[in-house]
Amino acid sequence: MMHAIETVDLAKTVGAGRRLFGDLRMAVAPGEVVAIVGESGVGKSTLLNILAGLDDADTGEVRIEGTALGPLDEAGRTRLRRERIGFVFQAFHILPYLTLEQNVALPLALISPDATAARSRARAMLADVGLGDRGADYARDLSGGELQRVAIARALVHRPAVILADEPTGNLDPDTANRILDLFARTVRSENAAAVIVTHSAATAAVADRLLTLTRSGLVAGHG
Prior knowledge:
By secondary structure, the chain is of the alpha/beta class. It has a single domain (5-221), classed as P-loop containing nucleotide triphosphate hydrolases (Rossmann fold, 3-Layer(aba) Sandwich), CATH 3.40.50. The chain has helices at residues 44-51, 74-84, 100-111, 115-128, 144-156, 174-190, 202-205, and strands spanning 5-14, 18-28, 33-37, 59-64, 67-68, 85-88, 162-166, 194-198, 210-215, 218-221. The strands form two sheets. It has a six-stranded mixed beta sheet. Strands 2-1-4-5 form a four-stranded antiparallel beta sheet, with no helix packed on it. α4 crosses α5 (144-156). The chain is globular. The two termini are 28 Å apart.
């Protein structure tokens, strides 16, 4: 079976040779949710960026549905991200000059000419995250928790094969977080996607099929 996400012997250093991690191997199957925890500064967000092709490892390889990222040029990586990856950034990256509906529809607009279908799907996703009546609003009108929900809707809207999420419930109250995590897990499994979640939250990690701890020596099962 081909894995949705696979890494082979990844290593990454930053600054003046400070090692974040090495010998990192991971395989995530379609329909599987993996949570990654670890100490602050060990490189969890950096690992997500490497999986998305936004950053490069020093050594090793990342494959997304069998496609190695290393040989791809920037245009090829951008195309792969648009078509096959959904990313929930910790800083949201919601575009302030677009409405919420336009923000959520953006991944579809980049890969499909059907604007009507994109708007319809975006409205449905906003409703799923509890913002169905806010589609015409702009980012400046939203709280941090609402922006986070928009970011999650945008990451899921184009039914990506791979979903990468950096602290996806960090700004949400517990009840909203539980609803969003349920949506997240149901979507991954119903769409047969693969998800990697970086989190400090025990509740977020609890929705995962596997829990891994990132250390300087790689990934270990469970809490270290």
